[in-house]
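Quick one:
INPUT:
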């Protein structure tokens, strides 16, 4: 039995709590939350022990799930790692690059499993492509959401765009060559909308747009590569592949296209999307890595690399905005 504790039972923390309850082989030891009213309500509703001493909760557990505000990640994560406990921490890994680097170093020293909550890696629409070869040369991303005061302690880059940065870095196996970015703070003190262009050393280019002041929601990513186009709708859980038909392609819609080089047969397919809960899948994955001593799907290194690119983007936006003033 894996003893698990939770730090933070706010909006997202409750989602985690509900999913932990459904994972076999896990015992929820209790939770820590400094908000007395929130803690009291959760303890009564879920019949789970509330710890008022953070260290006692850590000592009683094998693994901890950190779902506190980003600016509290460093303090809580370091406390956990110093005691040699496994750690799941929501994205972004930390509030600053320096904090993230220290967490990475401490995790290595502690020799424990660390997973960062980049939940879109477990989105069923993305998982449907696990057997598809993705080698994009151009990527287009739109992640738009309606304004919500929750999560605005960080910029839209660290709040929303970092999901897409993580996925792109996991697929484009190449270093970043250059970044250009623009962003505007509309409702908060940090950018609420941003457009970014990332060029990689292998020639791949990614254009990303993120907004948390949109009238509608959108979470789409499109990959363009030699002989194929792949589209993912993370919100609607849909995936589409359009490519030149191969002999092994069956059960696809196909049509002929006349080109200057001759007739080409185009195949259109929509991979089967599993009915799955992404949060539950990422927590199950974390448990599996502990039990089977295997690498986590989204390691602290992955979390750091996504943060590194995100902060380069933030620096570019700050520089651009300072020149405009």
């Amino acid at each position: 039995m894996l003893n698990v504790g939770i730090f933070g039972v706010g909006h997202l923390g409750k989602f985690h709590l509900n999913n932990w309850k459904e994972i076999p082989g896990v015992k929820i030891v209790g939770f820590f939350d400094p908000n007395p009213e929130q803690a009291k309500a959760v303890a009564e509703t879920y019949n789970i022990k509330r710890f008022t001493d953070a260290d006692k909760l850590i000592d009683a557990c094998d693994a901890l799930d950190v779902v506190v505000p980003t600016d509290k990640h460093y303090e809580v994560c370091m406390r956990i790692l110093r005691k040699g406990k496994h750690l799941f921490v929501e994205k972004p890994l930390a509030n600053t690059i320096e904090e993230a680097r220290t967490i990475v170093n401490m995790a290595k020293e502690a020799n424990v499993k660390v997973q960062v909550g980049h939940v879109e890696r477990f989105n069923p629409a993305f998982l449907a492509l696990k057997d598809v070869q993705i080698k994009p040369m151009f990527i287009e991303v739109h992640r738009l959401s309606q304004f919500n005061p929750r999560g605005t302690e960080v910029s839209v880059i660290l709040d929303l765009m970092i999901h897409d940065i993580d996925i792109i870095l996991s697929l484009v196996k190449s270093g970043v060559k250059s970044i250009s970015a623009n962003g505007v703070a509309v409702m908060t003190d940090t950018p609420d909308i941003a457009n970014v262009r990332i060029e990689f050393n292998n020639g791949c280019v990614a254009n990303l747009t993120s907004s948390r002041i949109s009238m509608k929601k959108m979470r789409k990513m499109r990959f363009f590569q030699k002989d194929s186009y792949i589209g993912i709708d993370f919100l609607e859980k849909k995936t589409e592949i359009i490519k030149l038909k191969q002999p092994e392609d069956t059960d696809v819609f196909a049509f002929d296209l006349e080109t200057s080089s001759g007739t080409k047969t185009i195949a259109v397919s929509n991979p089967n999307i599993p009915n799955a809960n992404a949060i539950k899948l990422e927590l199950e994955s974390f448990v599996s890595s502990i039990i089977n001593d295997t690498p986590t799907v989204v390691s602290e290194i992955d979390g750091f690399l996504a943060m590194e690119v995100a902060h380069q983007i933030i620096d570019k936006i700050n520089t651009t905005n300072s020149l405009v003033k």
